[in-house]
Amino acid sequence: MAELLKCNMLTPDKIDAIHVQLTFKKLTSDSFHSDNKENEKYGIHSQFAQIHKMEEPAFYYYYKQALENVKIGNRKQILNLGVNRGDEFEVIKNSLDTKKYENMHFVGIDHSKSAIAYAKSIFTENNVTFYAEDINNLERLKLGQFDLLISIGTLQSPSIYFKPFFMKLVQEYLTKDAAIIL
Length: 182
Fold this sequence. Notes:
alpha/beta, Rossmann fold, five-stranded parallel sheet, two-stranded antiparallel sheet, 5 helices, about 25% helix, globular
């Protein structure tokens, strides 16, 4: 129905035991891909920032399923390339008990300085680190290895030469038992 109405359907809200409230948000005809803001195409004030992936039931459902499949509770070191404001970390935080979450280390990297500043303001815990950096320059950060890589819609960017980048990522930044969510 949302598609026919040219809307996004937000996450339904439970009203009572037998009723849910459906909320629709009208789509704009503009695409964030054509956003003309110079350095912050994906920044906190861009059209992209108006997209809330975790309010998209189809995305949220499959992301939660992917987290279950990689046994998120058993992971210790998580790297998110293209983290933007940290939505994926928020889902993980809300899925785990506090002690388990606090014993994990999260690293998020994004080239958008405003998105990283926003993410830092939301995730003030000591186990979460954010870098405003081009992911083509990972070696500058001396990150170490991770047992989970998350990258939603970032690795197909035209500035990334996928095959050599992905090979280096797997060989240098992931442990042998690592999982990947793309």
